[in-house]
Amino acid sequence: MARIRPFAQRVAISFAAAALGMTLTSLVAQRALPSIAEVGGFLIVALVLIAVIAPVARHRVKPG
Q: Where are the domains of the chain?
């Protein structure tokens, strides 16, 4: 059970970040600023990828 919990936490954080990013992007897009919306969407996707991939990469690197 202990191994599932951190993964589930990363997935939940990723979904929350994606939902927040889509909400912010849609709000900005409604104000007719697509360039800012694209940049915001890209940043959110990058943050989600970092949040998911970084812990996995850190776990696979073994010191020594």
A: 34-59
pTM (global) more than 0.70? no
Exposure of 25 in the CB half-sphere (CA atoms within 13 A):
16
Q: How many CB atoms lie within 10 A of CB 24?
A: 16
Give, as one character, the DSSP assignment of residue 4: H
Bigger pLDDT: 17 or 60? Answer: 17
| Both structure tokens of 5 | 């919990």
SS3 state of residue 7: helix
* Three-state SS sequence of 10-63: HHHHHHHHHHHHHHHHHHHHHCCCHHHHHHHHHHHHHHHHHHHHHHHHHHHCCC
